[in-house]
Amino acid sequence: MKFSKILVIAGLLLFQLNFAQERADVVLNKALTEAKAKNKNVLLVFHASWCKWCHVMEKNMNLPETKPIFEKKFVTAYVDVQEMGDKKKLENPGGEELMNKYKGKDAGLPFWLVINPKGEVLADSFNDKNENLGCPSTAEEVDMFAAKLKKSSVMNTKELQTIKEIFVKKN
C-alpha cells in the first residue's frame, strides 16, 4: 500500500514537472551562455499561443531558406507571455517582468530583442516612432528589421535579401 502511494505521488510530481515552464530568466541565461560559447548574439522573442503574428514570425524564421541564416547568426530563445485562460500554464514564469525590463510592457506581440552575450541590448523591435514592429510584413517594416539584424549580427547582403524576400512574401 505504501509503495503504491509513493508511486502515485512520484507520478504526479513528474507529471507536474513535465508541464511546468522554465523561468524566463533561466531561458535567457541559457541562451546567453550558449551565445557566448558559440560567439553569437541572442534573438529573444516574446510570444503567445494566441498571437497570429507570433506564429507568422516563427514560421518565417524556420523556413528552409531562413532557418540556416538565423541559426548561423543567433541563439534564438522564446519566452511565452500574456497567455489567457487554460493556456496560462504555457507562460514562462517571470516572462512579463523580463519583457517589462526591456520596455516591452505595452509593445504588443511578438516583441523581440537582440542581446549580446554580455546581456547588452543591440537592437529591439521598436521602430523610429517607438512602435513595435512585431513580425515585420510591409516592405518598410521588413527593411527596418533587416537593418536591425545587419547592425546586430553582421549579416551579408545575400542573407539579408533572403530574409527580406521571405518576410515580405510570407504573410
Give a description of the structure.
With about 170 residues, the chain is α+β, with helices and mostly antiparallel strands. The protein has seven helices and four strands, in the order ααβααβαββαα. The chain has helices at about 1-20, 25-40, 50-60, 65-75, 95-100, 140-155, 155-170; strands at about 40-45, 75-80, 110-115, 120-125. A four-stranded mixed sheet has the order 2-1-3-4, with helices on both faces. Strand 3 (about 110-115) and strand 4 form a beta hairpin. Helix 6 packs antiparallel against helix 7. The chain is globular. The termini are far apart.
Structure summary:
This protein has 171 residues and is α+β, with helices and mostly antiparallel strands.
Please write out the topology:
Blueprint: H1 2-19, H2 24-38, E1 41-47, H3 52-61, H4 67-73, E2 74-80, H5 95-101, E3 111-115, E4 121-124, H6 139-153, H7 157-169
Parallel strand pairs: 1-2
Antiparallel strand pairs: 1-3, 3-4
List the main descriptive attributes of the protein structure presented here.
alpha+beta, four-stranded mixed β-sheet, 4 strands, 50% helix
